Amino acid sequence: MSGQPLIAVRDLERTYRRSRTSLLSPPPEVHALRGVSFDVARGERFGIVGESGSGKSTLIRLLCALDTPTAGTVAFDGEVVSGLPERRLRGLRRDLQVVFQDPMGSLDPRMRVRDIVAEPLVAQGERDPRARVAELLADVGLPPDAGERYPHQFSGGQRQRISIARALSTRPKVLVADEPVSALDVSVRAQILNLLADLVEEHALTLVFVSHDLSVVRHVCDTVAVVHEGRIVELGPTEQVHGAPRHPYTRRLVAAVPTLRKALDGVTAADLARGATAPGTEEAVS
């Protein structure tokens, strides 16, 4: 985790203009990001936490070159990618992949799972991705016949596993997980978080993990940036930020979040050994 950072963000700003409220006044401005700077080292697990409207989603769009900053830069592996035309972002699209919040919304319901997972490979020019697809489905804990089925035939947690398999298909350097467990039952979240942690280690990935829940970020990240009103108000080792928060907003986040342990209330060790589920959930707790 030394040397040139894999991702370098410098003085990043993003301003949006709303619709005019009158013909005589200029369009009002919304400052989604204000002077954000940080580095993500190779192999680091970097968390971004903040409530809805804090600016974290805008930040992720800029990191993935899906939007253009008003000011500042994003550099990936030493090259500034912010503001580049799409034709020059082919390498970034291969090396940086995203797992989105809503797995059902990010999967084409008309495609079989095998085609969904193979889609990025086909876009990169691979002619026969079948072996790679089978390998990926096994890596995320899905059965061999999963590739022949459609997304609606799976549970929410299983659909997120499909999304993760697709994101890993191009062998990226960076995995961006944008609220990947917020749409799932609480005990299923623990399984997906553990799966992500294992895959990040197995594939030597750099992880950028976005959440509104500091306890979830604590579960998977080494470092956390707390975003509030478009600014980073606290940045440091996750355990330090969680255990001794300095900013009042961070202290409110720490006080507000539940713990993943609560998902296991009422489930005994014997239940877990039999593969039982936590109350109200849809998958076995691992």
UniProtKB/TrEMBL annotation:
It holds the Pfam family oligo_HPY. GO terms for molecular function: ATP binding; ATP hydrolysis activity. GO terms for biological process: peptide transport; transmembrane transport. It comes from the Bacteria. Keywords: ATP-binding, Nucleotide-binding, Transport. Residues 7-254 form the ABC transporter domain. Belongs to the ABC transporter superfamily. This is ABC transporter ATP-binding protein. It comes from Vallicoccus soli.
